[in-house]
Amino acid sequence: MIPLHIDVKGKKVIVVGGGKIAYRRLCLFLAEGANITVISPNVISEIEELFHLGKITWLEKKIELADLKNAFFIIAATNDASINEWIAANIEENQLINIVSNAKLGNVTVPKTVKKGKLILSVSTSGASPKLSKEISEKLIEQFEDDFIEELDKLYVERELNKKGNSR
Which residues pair with 75 in a beta bridge? Predict the structure, then answer.
């Protein structure tokens, strides 16, 4: 696999499942401006609250083949491995899918990501230990002091201004 950072702003993201793992994944995509639909007969209170706030769509039902159509990214996060496998077997050729119960069935893994200013660090243990990925990423981000982050953010602004100046 190749590590990538993908712009999901405005993209259709389907989250199948309504538990804690589904919630954690959908929060990542929600923070990046994705258009999220959760499909699950039941959801935890945090997901229901996001639905009532109008931040996500919730289809209170079991997944059907038609639900997968036109999704840019699918997260199969049910507590039933056979449903997650069924989803993996029924995606369209160019859809991205993350299978939380068996990463090898999907074509995308979701690494632990930490941000500080414009610095984004992503860590993956290839599914061996999400807990260890979290620990590593938190230790790595601590290596960068606020002065470094401020300088990086200034460089970003400077580069954006140069781009605008060159495009006139």
Answer: 15, 98
Residue 146 to residue 74: CA distance in whole angstroms? 36
What is the C-alpha end-to-end distance of the chain, expressed in Å?
A: 39
Tokens representing residue 125 in the block: 């243990």
Tokens of 40: 């699950």
User: Quick one: pLDDT band at residue 167, thresholds 50, 70, 90?
Assistant: low
Whole-number Å distance between alpha carbons of 160 and 146: 21
- Contacts with 116 (C-beta within 8 Å, 6 or more apart), sequence order: 141, 144, 149
Higher local confidence (pLDDT), 20 or 110: 20
Structural element, H or E, at residue 105 = none
pLDDT tens track for 77-104: 999 999 999 999 999 999 999 998 888 8
**Distance, CA of 58 to CA of 90 (rounded, Å):** 21
**pTM of the entire predicted model:** 0.86
